[in-house]
């Protein structure tokens, strides 16, 4: 049994700390209003433990007191690491089955980005360079907006909702600072920054990594099976998780430099240590992971070479830095075509669907419009250079 010191220096055991979390959950769930709970579930260790404690709390109540619906929400960016998304979808399926049998007021839902705003439609279609720390266009489009839209719908329907997140102080010093600054705690409700009427709290705030792992190792999920697959996934990847980002405040943790599960295409991190970890651990699908890893590295190489990019931005204007150097624009159409071709080849090679037909339709539509725009830009450039070129006859006169 693990024990640790609480802020008042009293020794508290793990069962006591878990009991305290369940007590907070019971109290909040027992409030008179009917605002639904929305549990942010990434399939990672923290959100899995959160869901387990939520489930146990609601299941313990007499049927007539289970009045508030609980929505378990996962997000699929459509470029999730294949092992991680398989784990998320499989566990949500198990949860659905167990709910059917138990009659608990729990539902599951997976949000996705709009087809027009996926990673590939932006990179291959619009030519956006793969995200960097300074140009991280992806988190908003692929994680925050899809979940915000769902929260808005839920909150409108019921005039309020409560979002439960699995964030913990002990995750990192940065996390601790952010949580302290915003006064996030296990039992304090904070307003969601973007959705009126939605309040949020972090019931696991004060648990440390050991607490989470010990509980997952010692107890089975109430929806069936074991946590073995999750534990193995972490062990092989040697890292933490990419959280389900449901607010702008959480965005900085997405694609952070710590080893994490997230988009396999993530070029915000220098090295994808979770994919690398899976490859090095000799995972059964290591060859597949290696191919994804190489593709991601290739995307970075493309991004670093300005010759692959247009000299103007998507709006057709050139932009210069203060020192007069040119800020290059999106990938050229030739490069975008090459990325799609190589992605399709990769799909065949590893036998995994990596892009949806609807994304390809959207990409072709954007290309068609960009080709017209590019032809017009080049024609304009030609006519400007013809009219500004010195007239040899005039010069001679
Ligand atoms: S994991 Fe990386 S690519 Fe995916 S949303 Fe986060 S920062 Fe963007």
Provide an overview of this structure.
- With 397 residues, the protein is an alpha/beta fold.
- It has 2 domains: 8-256, Rossmann fold (3-Layer(aba) Sandwich); 286-380.
- It is built from 13 helices and 12 strands.
- It has helices at residues 14-29, 45-60, 82-102, 119-125, 138-158, 173-181, 209-218, 228-237, 273-280, 286-304, 333-350, 357-388, 392-396; strands at residues 3-5, 11-13, 37-40, 70-75, 106-111, 161-164, 190-191, 198-201, 240-241, 260-261, 319-320, 326-327.
- Strands 5-4-3-6-8-7 form a 6-stranded mixed sheet, sandwiched between helices.
- Helix 1 (14-29) crosses helix 2 (45-60), helix 4 (119-125) packs parallel to helix 12 (357-388) and helix 9 runs antiparallel to helix 10 (286-304).
- The termini are far apart.
- Mean pLDDT is 88; it is low at 1-5.
- The structure holds iron/sulfur cluster.
- The site of iron/sulfur cluster has 15 residues, from helix 5.
What portion of residues is helical?
40-55%
CATH superfamily of the largest domain: HUPs
Number of strands: 12
Q: Can you count the helices?
A: 13
CATH topology grouping of the largest domain: Rossmann fold
Largest sheet: 6 strands, mixed
Which terms summarize this structure?
single chain, 397 residues, alpha/beta, Rossmann fold, 6-stranded mixed β-sheet, two-stranded antiparallel sheet, 48% helix, binds iron/sulfur cluster
Outline the secondary-structure elements.
Blueprint: E1 3-5, E2 11-13, H1 14-29, E3 37-40, H2 45-60, E4 70-75, H3 82-102, E5 106-111, H4 119-125, H5 138-158, E6 161-164, H6 173-181, E7 190-191, E8 198-201, H7 209-218, H8 228-237, E9 240-241, E10 260-261, H9 273-280, H10 286-304, E11 319-320, E12 326-327, H11 333-350, H12 357-388, H13 392-396
Parallel strand pairs: 3-4, 3-6, 4-5, 6-8, 9-10
Antiparallel strand pairs: 1-2, 7-8, 11-12
Helix pairs in contact: 1-2, 2-7, 4-12, 9-10, 10-11
